Amino acid sequence: MTKRLIVAGLAAGVALMTASASAHTSYMQPNLFDTANASQVTIETSFTEDFSRPEIAVESQDFHLYRPDGRRDSYDRVTVLNQMTVLESDLTETGTYRFTTGERLGRTSLQARIDGEWRPLEPGAEAPRGVQTRQSQTATVADVYVTKGPPTTQVIGVSVGRLAIVPVTHPNSIYLDEGFSLRVTFDGAPVANQALELTRDGGGYDEPAFVQTLHTDASGALTIRFTQPGVYLLMTRKSGDAPSGAETAVRSYTTSLTFEVSR
Questions:
Q1: CB atoms within 10 A of CB 190
Q2: In whole angstroms, what is the distance from residue 190 CA to residue 217 CA?
Q3: Would you state the pLDDT for residue 13?
Q4: Contact 148, 97 (CB under 8 A)
């Protein structure tokens, strides 16, 4: 079977996973990003294709948060609904908090090597004979930062998952005329030329719909410039060898960060 026939066969029914299941991204969205005196924050987390319209509730065994001094803690309440999970936490201390889903392991899928690239197949699909395949499992992390009073930085360097979006600009001090500087790392090492997707809450009403694909430079750094304020979701994906003893040899890592851009 030639490569052309293999690709045609995949497109005809043994399809590559370009359907909605592969495009969903998890996010965390708080009812506030910055406050002078609020005593509580409520956070919505969900998988969606249209930020921030919840579609599938995020369920995780590792929901947690970091308090301004860097101390790990639990949420006061976790309520799982069909289309979203609602998390509540007190804000008893001043400074910057980090709220996260933790690294969440998800479904496994079959990947086929087509045109030199590993691509996931639709659930239940069989790869054509002669095509190299492997099993992969998803590993997702969604983060958001909330600041009470003056911003602090202790929680920014805390490691959550292998693929990380590391803010250089404080994530609760992003302004329209200054932009947002960040780094992307994998196991702590910078990732050069890493693709990231940027969407904006309500950006689907733009014509065309707002979505940008950005790339880190050779040092894994990126500065994002904005043309309007709002709440944004930044997402990046990368495949890598799974840790020793994992269910599959490969994992597909997805990490997202929700943040607000102010005037």
A1: 16
A2: 10
A3: 46
A4: yes
Task: Locate all alpha helices (DSSP H) within the chain, ordered by sequence.
Answer: 3-12, 20-23
In the chain, what percentage of residues exceed pLDDT 70?
91
pTM for the whole thing? 0.89
Q: Distance between CA atoms of 28 and 17, rounded to whole angstroms?
A: 25
CA distances from 179 to 22, 151, 212, 223 (A): 30, 17, 15, 7
Instruction: Give the pLDDT confidence of 214-249 residue by residue, as tens digits.
Output: 999 999 999 999 999 999 999 999 999 999 999 898
- Read off the amino acid at residue 233: L
- Average pLDDT of the chain, as a whole number: 91
Listed in sequence order, the residues at least 6 apart from 145 whose beta carbon sits closer than 8 Å to its beta carbon are: 33, 96, 97, 98, 99, 155, 156, 167, 171, 172, 259
Residues 45 and 26 sit within 8 Å (Cβ to Cβ): yes
Q: Where do we find the tokens 């929700």?
A: 258
Beta-carbon contacts of 184 under 8 Å, excluding residues fewer than 6 positions away, are 163, 164, 165, 166, 190, 191, 194, 196, 216, 220, 222, 236
Residue 69 in 3-state DSSP?
coil
Half-sphere exposure of 66 (CA within 13 A, CB side): 21
* CA dist., res. 100 & res. 145, Å (int): 9
| C-alpha to C-alpha distance for 182 and 175, rounded to whole angstroms | 14
